[in-house]
Design goal:
Radius of gyration: 33 Å
CATH architecture of one domain: Ribosomal Protein L15, Chain: K, domain 2
Strand order of the largest sheet: 1-3-5
Oligomer: single chain
Structural class: alpha/beta
């Protein structure tokens, strides 16, 4: 048997119903929609989730959670992540975005104390933990809170 001789088994392929193609087709005139009523009109029918006047499921279920529009977005960075910067470099929001540690959309930066640093860095950030401040200053670095 060759690949060009392959064909699906009998009955596997079914022709689609072509509605609105005249009375001879058996699906002409009203095109299987019946006479009058909402569903016979164009754009008619009921919206998704409509349950015939019964209270819809999405309204019966309890509401949960809420989205705080006043939430402050904070990008957290550990000291171990600062190892990609060179000695004596100044690290600010722009440098962190450029290196991929923070996104432009994050409004604030917080440095946490996980990891080690062995060379001095100057940080210009919004906040940091006590452990992070101790480790940076022990390595000879400086921290500026903006």
């Amino acid at each position: 048997m060759k690949i060009n001789q392959l064909k699906p088994p009998k009955g596997a392929i079914k022709r689609r119903k072509r509605i609105g193609r005249g009375p001879g087709s058996g699906h002409g005139k009203t095109s299987c929609r019946g006479h009058k009523g909402a569903n016979s009109r164009s754009g008619g029918g009921v919206p998704p989730g409509y349950e015939g006047g019964q209270m819809p499921l999405k309204r019966r279920l309890p509401k949960v959670g809420f989205y705080n529009i006043f939430k402050k977005r904070v990008a957290t960075i550990n000291i171990r992540d600062l190892a990609r910067f060179e000695k004596d470099s100044v690290i600010d929001m722009e440098a962190l975005v450029h290196s991929g540690l923070a996104k432009k959309s994050s409004a604030r930066i917080k440095v946490l104390g996980e990891g080690k640093i062995s060379y001095p860095l100057t940080l210009k950030i919004h906040s940091l933990s006590k452990a992070a401040k101790e480790k940076i200053e022990a390595a000879g670095g400086k921290v500026e809170i903006i």
